[in-house]
Amino acid sequence: MSPYEPPTDPLVILKADDHLLFVDKPEGLLSVPGKGADLADCLLSRLEAKWPGILLVHRLDRDTSGVMVFARTPHAQRHLGLQFEKRIVEKRYVARVAGRIGQSGRFDGPLKADWPNRPRQMVAPDGRPAVTDWDRISEGAEESRVALRPLTGRSHQLRVHLAEAGHPILGDPLYDGPPAERMMLHAERLRLRHPEGGAWIEVVSNVPF
């Protein structure tokens, strides 16, 4: 993996209230601190500096950009945690992938850690269930743009499923994606129920590629 040189641009807050904070995570920034002082800078620590007591709910990989939600109260954190656990939260990602992919389909491949090659994950019969629905948005001669809807939330799920299907994400160094200026994976949309009242709330981040 390349040296950690996180972006320094000001964070973009997509939506905020007394309970929730939606942030547009930039590509190249860790969601939480890594091991070692050189990996301490992350989205969570930057938010804590401005919103003390902010609470983590989920993560995005370092090189994935897009919508993340944080909780501002313990109640909101518990409420959102249950929504993610029970698959109530609706997530949509957009990716550019190698090759010409079919019109739509489902990846259903259990995942587990590839221990000799950590942090890689791999499809294995004894892995944890992992399901991803996808639809092709457009295609060119050598690549396709796809919309991805993960129904589970395993580590590297989208990256592994696409690579296993023969369509690795452009710029993904861990799963042999073709070279690109960045990893072409973006969390475009989150839809969930507000912890106070239960109304549906949807937040969108514009795809930067």
From the structure above, extract its key features.
3 helices; alpha+beta; nine-stranded mixed beta sheet; 33% strand; 209 residues
Element-level helix/strand string? EEHEHEEEEEEHEE
Q: What Rg do the Cα atoms give?
A: 17 Å
Overall morphology: globular
Percent helix: 10-25%
In DSSP terms (H or I, runs of 4 or more residues), the helix count works out at 3
Intertermini distance: 22 Å
Overall residue-averaged pLDDT value:
97
**Based on helices, strands and strand pairing, what is the structural class?**
alpha+beta
Number of DSSP E strands:
11
Work out the strand percent: 25-35%
Please explain how this structure is put together:
By secondary structure, the protein is of the alpha+beta class. Helices cover 13% and strands 33% of the residues. The protein is built from 3 helices and 11 strands, in the order E-E-H-E-H-E-E-E-E-E-E-H-E-E. The strands form 2 sheets. Strands 1, 2, 3, 4, 5, 8, 9, 10 and 11 form a 9-stranded mixed β-sheet that branches. The two termini are 22 Å apart. The mean pLDDT is 97.
Indicate the topology.
Blueprint: E1 12-16, E2 20-25, H1 43-50, E3 65-71, H2 74-85, E4 90-98, E5 104-108, E6 111-113, E7 121-123, E8 131-139, E9 143-150, H3 157-164, E10 185-193, E11 200-204
Parallel strand pairs: 3-10
Antiparallel strand pairs: 1-2, 2-3, 4-9, 4-10, 5-8, 6-7, 8-9, 10-11
Summarize the structure.
This protein has 209 residues and is an alpha+beta fold. Helix content is 13%, strand content 33%.
